[in-house]
Amino acid sequence: MPHRHAPHALWAFALSIILLMPASVFAQGVPTLDVSTQMARAGYYQLRWGLEGADGTLYRLEESRYDDFRQVRVLYEGADRATVISGRSDGIFHYRVRATVADGGHSPWSEPLMVTVAHHSLGQALTLFLTGAVVFLATIALIVTGRKV
Amino acid sequence: MSIQETAILEPGLAWFLIALFTALYLGMGWYFGRRDKELDQFVLAGRKVGLAVGTATAMATWVTSNTTMMAPQLAYQIGLWGMIGYALGSVGLLLFAPLAKRIRQLMPYGYTSGDFVRLRYGPVAWRIFLAISLFYSFGWLVSLGMAGGVLTHALSGIPYWQGMTVILAACVAYTLIGGFRAVIGTDFIQSILILVGLVVIAWLVIGRIGFDDIHLGLQLERPELLTLLMPAAIMFLFNNLLFGMGEIFHSNVWWTRAYSFREGVGMWAYLLAGIFWAPIPIVAGFIALAAPALGANIPAADMVGPIVASELLGLAGAVIVLVMVFAALASSLDSLLAATAMLVVRDIYYRHLRPQATAAHLRTATKVTILLLGIIAWMLCLPRITTLAELLHFTGAFVASTIWPIAAGLYWRQTNRIGASLAMVLGSLAGISAYFLIGFYVGALVGAAVSMVIVLLTTWLWPQSFDWKTLNEPPPRH
Fold first, then answer.
1. B467 or B177: whose pLDDT is higher?
2. Where is the signal peptide (chain A) (predicted)?
3. Both A66 and A92 in a single domain?
4. Exposed end of chain B (fewer CB within 10 Å): N or C?
5. Is residue A5 part of a domain?
6. What was the pLDDT predicted at B420?
7. What distance in Å separates the CA atoms of residue B299 and residue B73, rounded to the nearest whole number?
8. Closest partner CB to B224 (pick from A48, A89, A131)
9. Are residues A45 and A59 in the same domain?
10. What is the pTM assigned to this prediction?
11. Separation between Cα atoms, residue A115 and residue B403, nearest integer Å
């Protein structure tokens, strides 16, 4: 019959890790991470993060094209609590953030966040562009010829 | 909670600069307005404004926080077309030049844009127009107040609400003291501060980073900002042009100037202002494109201009930006407060509630209204519900729907009151639907297009024969 309980040594190891972790990390919990829109139709969006009651904390924001974050890019490290991403081509992007508190301890990673960039269709854009051009030219024609009417 | 922790200016220095320029504008407000005891002098500067001051006031008023802070925001969000599209805002000034001349000819004793719509299209269209115009005025007022808070927060870390409160209060104070002559007098000084500040910053940015590094930074980090086929940016181009036209064609800010300019001045003042204004958003927007090359973090899109300038140029850059944007803000806030107060007092208070009011009573009512507008704008600014661009473009759907009723009403006898009313209502509804269904970059475009089709159709189907002399209403006997 297999042993269903962890050996005592394992419990002791886990307990010692917990006891040795900086108290501030426990007190402050997991950072939050939000985005202005999860479907970016113009290639830009704002990411905001924070850790409740932790002024002066430093944050590390990572981006990945994979949901398991096997390849990441550090987008920001510092004390700010937001950033604007822009100029992105179509694709799916994953984000997570971690806080480093005053005594050097790290918080756990935030819940991952997924953003999809899907630009409007070029056909729709050109149709509206032409509509705008027609309205503009017609207004000029009205002003130039109007007084004769 | 603050979203930015890395500001360049010491809060003490920022407060000192704000106090210094507030004192300067208050002093100028008192100086310029000290002799204006009559109502016409207080609200229209005696209808004798000349070309130099006329050009400066039109240009300075159109260079707002929206130009100095939103042009960089749009360049940062939608790239090259955002920057160029913003510069097309000058078309509104250029096309208003012939309208200003015609307004002065047709309505030599006019006071507000509401006067024109009332006389041309009757009470229903007039009230629809007033609702649109007041909604827009509040949108613009709130965006200006917000810009004051965003600016001081980005540069010095001063909490948003504190900077917003002080800058709004300063502008309300000197508009109250000096009236319209103070508004256009300070505009002249402010336009010089804005132009000098912008040229110095652009020159320093290009000198410190260079075009090649800026281009490389964008190509690596934000490639879509360089493409000319970004769909949102393509849609934005004519949207912004038509939004600017709608703002200028309908707003009492521009009509009061048309009435206040000496005969023959309006056309040239608006033409010159449009020509001088056009390069400003290009320069301001270009600064934002340097952000990726600098590696600067931009916490909110409307903070990009001040952050890049101060990151790159340090303390001197931050000081120049603060002085310049404060001047740009003040030059627009005072104009908007004065013109909106006049619209409220003449078109709502005088025409609807107190038709027997004396000139002295209306002058006091104008001052009380300026104060109330400031308080309401402050309350609306406090929650900082959205970014500057999104807030202002929300009003775009409404104002663009007035382009055709105003322009056709000034030039075509046949355009009728039902057509004008329908065009404003249905144009606004269509524009606001497009704003929510597609994005902020199409609201004005769709609103203007629907409005134009309705004006054309109704003018063709039910032509009227309007007598232009109706517009020449004699001055009220206060």
1. B467
2. 1-27
3. yes
4. N
5. no
6. 97
7. 12
8. A89
9. yes
10. 0.81
11. 38
Is the pLDDT assigned to residue B458 strictly greater than 90?
A: yes
Give the model confidence (pLDDT) of B71-105 as tens digits: 888 999 999 888 888 889 899 999 999 999 999 99
Mean pLDDT value across residues B191-203: 81
Pair A109, A125 in one domain: no
Residue with tokens 């300070």: B186
β A73-78/A58-64 pair status = antiparallel
Interface test with B, best of A48, A52, A128, A144 (most B CBs within 10 A): A128
What distance in Å separates residue A121's CA from the closest CA in chain B? 7
Spell out which residues of chain A touch residue B5, defining contact as CB-CB under 8 Å: 78-81
Q: Which residue has the tokens 């709004």?
A: B168
pLDDT at A23 (0 to 100): 47
Which range marks the domain in which residue A72 is found?
A: 25-118
- Say if the Cβ atoms of A89 and B304 lie within 8 Å: no
- Euclidean distance between CA atoms B141 and B300, whole angstroms: 20
| 3-class secondary structure, A47 | strand
Q: CATH number of the domain at B3-387, out of 3.40.50.300, 3.20.20.80, 1.10.150.20, 1.20.1730.10?
A: 1.20.1730.10
Residues on chain B touching A79 (C-beta within 8 angstroms): 5-6
Q: What interface predicted TM-score (ipTM) does this complex get?
A: 0.84
Residue A139 shares a structural domain with residue A103: no
Q: Could you tell me if A124 and A114 lie in one domain?
A: no
Q: Which amino acid is located at B52 in the chain? A: A
Number of folded domains that form chain A: 2
Q: What does the domain layout of chain B look like in residue ranges?
A: 3-387
Residue A110 located in a structural domain: yes
Contacts of B440 (CB under 8 A, 6+ apart): B389, B390, B393, B394, B396
The number of CA neighbours under 13 Å toward the Cβ of B453 is: 12
- Which residues in A lie closer than 8 A to residue B222 (C-beta atoms)? 86-88
Chain A: give the shortest CA distance to residue B361, in Å. Answer: 39
Whether residues B234 and A126 touch (CB distance < 8 A) is answered with yes
pLDDT at B216 over 80: yes
Task: For residue A121, list chain B residues with Cβ-Cβ distance below 8 A.
Answer: 231
Q: How many CB pairs under 8 A join A and B?
A: 162
What single-letter amino acid sits at B254? W
The amino acid at B224: E
Question: Among B186-195, B277-286, B468-477, whose mean pLDDT is lowest?
Answer: B186-195
Give SS3 for A38.
Answer: coil
Interface test with B, best of A139, A145, A149 (most B CBs within 10 A): A139
**A77: nearest CA in chain B?**
B297
Residues A130-147 have a mean pLDDT of 93
Let me know whether A55 and A72 are in one domain. yes
